[in-house]
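Hey, sorry to bother you again with one of my protein questions. There's a protein on my desk that I can't quite get my head around. No rush at all, and the record is pasted right below.
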Amino acid sequence: MNSEPLVTGKNIDLTQFVCRFLRDRGAVLETAGEMINILLPKDLSQALDVEELISVAKDTDAVSTFGGHKLYSIALQSILLERITSLAASTFPVLQTELKFHYIKSQGFDTLIKEQFGFHGIKIKIKGTAETMTRYVLLTCRFLAQSDEQKQGLLDFSFNLDTGASVPEMSRMMPYAEKQYQTKNAQAFTKKDIRHIHEWVSFHGPGAVEPDLLDFVRSMNRRLKRDALSLEAYYRALEEEMRESLSRTGISDKLIRERQEKIDLIPEELAVKKKDLLKKYSIRIGFFPVAAMRVTTPCITVFVTLMSGRQKTDISLHYNPVTKKMDPMVCPSCGKSMYSLGLCRHLHPNCNTCLEVGCNCC
C-alpha cells in the first residue's frame, strides 16, 4: 500500500491536508475508489485513538465499519478530523537555514563599535577579528493578554542563540539574505536552547508587546477607576445611612454597638473589594510559539579590550552580516541587551541601571 492517494472533489484541500499530515508521520496510504485505506504507525494510531488499519472517506457516516475495519469520515467537524487538527496544532513548524554571503565586512570595526556603543569611563582597543559561525532563532509567538476582556496578536522575536542578545532587526532583514534551507541532517533545538528561548521570551516579551496593548491597558485602567469610584460611593452612602440610623430614638444600646461595629468594618471590607477589583482588571500575558526558524550564519567576532584606568578586561563582540551592525551585548547582571555600558569595580560589563543599583555578578 504505497500508491499516491487520488484526491478529487469539492473537499480536495481538506483531503490533501489529512493525507499529507498522516503521510508525514509515517502512515502508508492507498486509494480504493472513493475511500483511502491507511496503515498507521502504532504511536500515531494511539495519539489519534484509532486502529492501526483504517479507511477514510469524504461522504460517509462519522464512524462505520467496512471490510472488517473502521471507516472514518473526514468531513468538517468529524471525529477523526478534529483529532488530526488538534494533533497538528500541538506542535509548531521549525525551519532551519544556513545563510550564504559573497562578501562580509572585514575592517572598520573600531568605528562601527564607537558609533553603536556608549562606553562610560572606558577606553577600547581592538585586538583582532575572526570569521566564525553563530546561530540565531527567529520566533513568531501568539500573545494572549487576559483581564476582564482579552486581546491577542502575533509578535516576532530574534535572538542570538550563542549570546542571548535580542536582535529585532534580524527578522526585518532576513528576506534580503541568501538562504539555503536544510531538509536533511537538520539539527533540532537542544533542551538547553529551548530553556534559554523560553527565558528570553519571558524576559523581553512584556516590553515588546507593550505598544500593542496600549489601548487595552487604558481600557482596563479606565474600568478599574470607574468601578473603584462606584464602590467607594456605595460604601460611603452605606456608612452615612448607618450613622444616621444611630441617631434614631428608641434604638437600644445593643443595636447601637452592633451597628457601630459594622461601621468600623467598612474600611476593611472596602479594601477587600478594591483588591478583588484589582485582581479582576490585572493583565496576565502569555506567549505561545507559532513558528520558528533556526538560522546558522557566518559572522565576524571582534576581540576587544576594555580599559578603565589601569584595569582591563577582554570581551568579544559580533558583527551581524544580515543587519550589517554589531549585535548588542548582554548585561550579565540582568540579561538586558545593551549598547550602553560601563564596568563595575570587578570589571563586569553592566548596563546603566545595574551600574546604579549594583552589579549582581559581584
